[in-house]
Amino acid sequence: MKIKGNKVVDAKKDLVLIVLARDVAHADKKSPRTCVVAKACSRQEKMEAMIHLTRVYLRNGGNWTRYVLPPSLRGELIAFDRGGAFIPDTYVLLAPKGRSKLGNHRGRSGKRNSSSLRKKPQYVKDIRANLYDIAG
Questions:
Q1: pLDDT (tens digit per residue) in 77-108
Q2: How do the domains of the chain map onto residue ranges?
Q3: What are phi and psi of 81, to 5 degrees?
Q4: Lowest mean pLDDT: which of 29-38, 68-77, 96-105?
Q5: Is-contact 130 52, C-beta < 8 A?
């Protein structure tokens, strides 16, 4: 996987992120690069950041490092994008494990019957852009 020509690699360990009130005050709604979490990552880690609803991408010069966004932080981002408050706190960006890792796609084998067909995904509306819309 690449983002704008730069390779994406999975993070090897979790990252503790402290979101401050000043990150909230200077953040933009619906913006993967200037939202609250992106501001906090840029301030704390001194890296470029792109934040999406399930993944976080940090880049310091070369490769992008990929983290999994925890559900608690996802809920805060959805609320913030829709005009609500973001509560400053300490959050943990998770290193991908198991099926979340890049290149770890386990396919299904055998026949599928109508009861095992995949359900249509539910999309959250009125929030930030999708990674594939901006990755190019």
A1: 999 999 999 999 999 999 998 877 887 766 55
A2: 2-96
A3: -60, -30
A4: 96-105
A5: yes
